[in-house]
Amino acid sequence: MAKPTIRIKSPPEAKRGSVVEIMTLISHPMDTGLRKDRDGNVILRKIINKFLCLYNSEMVFSADMHEAISANPLIQFNFIAKESGTLELIWHEDGGQVYSTTRKIRVH
Model pTM? Predict the structure, then answer.
C-alpha cells in the first residue's frame, strides 16, 4: 500500500474563543482481515486504530477506531480557539505505523 494521503479542512484563522470546525480524511483501505484476494488468501487486518489531534501539544480530540470503520475514514470535530498555534493530526495504524500532518491556525 502506498503512503496514505491526509487531507484537512480548517480555517487559516479564527476569532479568539470561537468554535473551530476541523474535517480530516485519510486515504486508507481499512482492511479488516475478513476479505480474501483473487487467489483466496485472507487479506491481513490493517486498519487505522487511533486518531489524535493536538493543538499546541495539547490533546483536543481523540478517537479509537475498529473494523467497522469504512475505507478512507473522515473525521469531523470542533474545538475552541484560544491562541494561535499548530494543529497536529496523528493517525495510528495496526503494526505501529504512524501518519501525521500539521496545520497552522492564527487566532486574533
Answer: 0.90
